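Supplementary notes (optional reading)

For those who missed the lab, this is the record we used. Protein: Spermatogenesis-associated protein 5 isoform 2. Length: 730 residues.
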Amino acid sequence: MVTFHVSSSNAKIHAQRVLIPLESMQQLALATGDRVLIKHAETPDKFVLRTAWPSLTLDKDVIEMNAATRLAGEFRVSDPIHIEKYTPSDTTSIAIRVTLRFLAMPEFTLNQTLTSYLHEILCDQRYVTRGDVMDVRYMGQLRRLRVEKIHPDVPMALMSTNTQVIALLPDDKADHEPSQQESKPISYQDIGGLEKQINQVREMVEVSLQDPELFVKYGMKPPRGVLLYGPPGTGKTLIARAVAQETKAHVMVINGPEIISRYYGETEQKLRDIFAVARERAPSIIFIDEIDSLCPKRDEAPTELEKRVVTTLLTLMDGVETSRANESTMTTAADRIVVLGATNRPNALDEALRRPGRFDREIEIGIPNSDARLSILTTLLKRIPNMLTQEDINTIASKAHGYVGADLAAVCREAGLFCIRRNALSESKVDLKVTLQDMNDAMAGIRPSAMREIMLEVPKVYWADIGGQAYIKDRLKESIEWPLKHPEAFERMGIRPPKGILLYGPPGCSKTLMAKALATEAGSNFIAVKGPELFSKWVGESEKAVREVFRKARAASPSIVFFDEIDALTVKRGSDGSGTSVADRVLSQLLNEMDGIEPLVNVTVVAATNRPDIIDDALLRPGRIDRILYVGPPDYASRRDIFQIQIAKMTCDKDVDIDELAQKTEGCSGAEAVALCQEAALFAMEEDVHIDSIKRRHFLKALGSFKRRITPEMLQFYADFQTRSGLLPA
């Protein structure tokens, strides 16, 4: 073993480097950048890990290092030291938590940004050793820190992206370090709306961790994996933390792609290290979040890395099942490991993972229904001072369609901010309690997760804004609002709500306007689909778009899917002579979604068209389109309502007679009546741009130049369609 002597450095040396004579590096078979262990010749149990760097000026037996390295190894100038090349070991532990202490009081405050910066520096070093000293420049200041503690308690550990870094001031007590970073323990009582799923997870996990011998007694192997799948924000990670807390198990979290490394074999090694630490600290739970990004299907994996990761995880999970050659040996504490996986794309996982012995059970954590939302809100509001009654909470839960647990937590947090802002403007600070108005204001600004990709800013149109058409309004209310407000009546009568409604009639007769009012008044999630936008030039993409619309509608139920100009999507099959067109395939997909194997629950399809004759007959049958409503030109009373609503928004003279306008617009559509009012206003402005009001003469002039778009032939066309289809006139 070669002995060197320490030399101080007057030059600026990289914090992690030591300068070694080039001849000595060749003698020790060291390459530039190799890691070396530096030990005191008299106390070889203490070491410092650094990077070897060649020097052309040093004497053969001299090694040059900076002050931080000398302080870490307690080396003095001229002390004899030994150097050896560091060889990575498979048994090196992964650091779960690293505690750093400033050796002098810094002038800046400790915050999350500093902690993240320190974490990044340590990850760049890859290895962290207990007692090491590092110089860090932050906000223009150079400060020195010492590695005070590594968890688990080992001399050297491997850093990972999941390693927790804690920074302490010189006078801070180390006993308090976990309280700075660790949140309040989560129990099952802190989770609302997931009682069924929690019981399923407990059934699988708790006995496996706490009493695995019970399974062996009955000749069974303990379950080793549970896959939680569902949309983001539904509580998958929360359940994993609660299970870990209640079982007092050690938790290791793998956040999907965070462990991916660009170096060959390092990703697999990180996985092996995590399972090794889990064995050492059993009972353990390994929680893999976004597991689909880590373990996609091997035949669809973009690179060889994903395939190697999947194979490694399969091997490790089989190793959890039995780490000895004799599988009949009783399970020991070292094998008390359960792997929890979470994903919102379960079908993207490799099939080999989804078999018994790996992920033994798959539990859906879905979007909560009304009762689950009530439970979640009740749990959340226990922690917030509020003035809400039970009836208020019931109301919020019933109208929060599509909101997941994370959304409801965001609503409560935002409501608290509204309360703080409101009270900040007043002198009294006593009554800081969340009100129902705060909750409503918060909900208006927070969209449900299930609808964020397709949420529309629907114009606020109410039934009162639509003149006439009372029969159509009543039928729409029966179909959409009654099932939500009176579900027990449908159950009592043994019937189901209508699945689909078709509004047909001449252009301009308020079909689309009624859909807007329906979206506003019903309170359901509203998804609008413009017929032609679903078509794609790629084979299969159009059908996929239809499936995606209905998948989101089911996830956000109760919901309304509105197809405007549905005739563009549902032309009678074979009308182009080939029978294999994109439109035919889209229609088949639509028929399957509306009344196929997978039921359409709490999703109502509303469609509008002015060409009902070209729609495929299979769509118009009961069970798909249950109600076909003719929206014709408004009658006298309806036209009078339309003029009354429109003129109320305008500045009109007293000589304008609404009854006269209603009589003279016989056969006009609602859109034409509105256009007539706009034309009269323009005539008034042409006469005098500063005119005070619109006179009767302006309306008469507009009537004189007005051309009706709805012809008798058009009305006869719809009458003939009603006769052929056997539909009763509205």
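If you only remember one thing from this example: The two ends are 102 Å apart (CA to CA).
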